[in-house]
Amino acid sequence: MKNKFILALSGNDIFSGGGLHADLTTYTVNKLHGFVAVTCLTAVTENGFEVFPTDKGIFSAQLSSLKDVDFSAIKIGLLPNIEIAQKSLDFIKSHSDCPVVLDPVLVCKENHDLEVSQLRDELIKFFPYVTIVTPNLAEAQLLTQTRITNLEEMKAAAKILYDLGAKHVVIKGGNRFHQEQATDVFYDGQDYKILEYPVLPQNNIGAGCTFASSIASQLVLGKSVLEAVAVSKDFVYQAIQSSDQYGVVQYEEN
């Protein structure tokens, strides 16, 4: 670990469960110094849950402010439009010496934002420059342009993402195939690793963000990619298990 500086390029969740809130909380639990460049704001309006991209000039100014920070890892979350994605990619290219975790948020659970889904081609451009890509099933389907209905198709999708340039892939399957079991698939171009945990009844707002930012944290702390994924799967499980009555994830140090 060269230092404790870790960055999130992520959005502000108005409900404070996911996005930068989950990222910074996860960094703090791991005793790391978290930075954030805010990609968007969110709000609930008469149109439902809406995403408001950060002005491109303001986002550029944020990145310029951080260009000389020697980060030990970077986590990328919601990139709301092509302009923000392109500026983020340029920033990542200039920090090629640190691990990067890409959580490709293509589908907002609340409204399936079409503008976000159109970012597929832009996000694939990140693959050669990131350490690991962490899509959920819906995102993996959009990225691979395939249908995923079982474990073997998850494995096939992970290979497609690898062939598109991703060095490591973990597809978060959740409980889509087994109501009582949450299943993820990790692939590094050679071997598959299946990660399974029981499904918990508690709400899991921000679980995907927490998972990705935990992986980034564990990479800073010296874990291998597979070790970081396994530790983070357990971390998210425990966080959901400790979540409060409102569905907001609570974190406790071991």
From TrEMBL:
Domain of life according to the entry:
Bacteria
Q: Which InterPro entries match?
A: HMP/HMP-P_kinase_dom, PM/HMP-P_kinase-1, Ribokinase-like
Which of UniProt's keywords are assigned here?
A: ATP-binding, Kinase, Magnesium, Metal-binding, Nucleotide-binding, Transferase
- Supply the SUPFAM superfamilies for this chain: Ribokinase-like
Q: What does the record give as the reaction this protein catalyses?
A: pyridoxal + ATP = pyridoxal 5'-phosphate + ADP + H(+)
- EC no.? 2.7.1.35
Gene3D superfamilies registered for this protein in UniProt: 3.40.1190.20
Domain Pyridoxamine kinase/Phosphomethylpyrimidine kinase: from-to ranges: 13-247
EC class of the enzyme, as a word? transferase
One example GO MF annotation: pyridoxal kinase activity
Q: Give the protein family.
A: Belongs to the ThiD family.
The record's PANTHER family line, in alphabetical order, gives: PHOSPHOMETHYLPYRIMIDINE KINASE, PYRIDOXINE KINASE
Name used for this protein in its record: pyridoxal kinase
**Organism for this UniProt entry:** Streptococcus porcorum
